[in-house]
Amino acid sequence: MNFSSGTANCSGTIIGNSNVKKIEATFQLLKKNTSGQFVSYYTWPKVTANGNYLTWSGSCSVTPGVYRLQVTAIVTNTSNVSETVTTHYDKEYK
Predict the structure, then answer these.
(1) I want to staple 3 with a disulfide (CB 3.0 to 4.6 A). Which of 13, 21, 67, 93 is the partner?
(2) Residues 71 and 25: beta-carbon distance below 8 Å
């Protein structure tokens, strides 16, 4: 995640194990409020990849503050067993 002239430019890559057949991911931008909690700011449409590799990029307008790019991915293997994984990255825009 990088900021430029009031725009957050975000990207992410998910690489699953060799037995992963499908990845569904939702990327969301959250902003820290005055209470120190991260609240939803912008959510991009869900993206899906058949196979074990997913790459994504998106952007949105932002104002100064601390942002969290969060991704929640549902990963399904060849045995049709699914697992949900969430991770995030924080950065400040001044």
Answers:
(1) 93
(2) yes
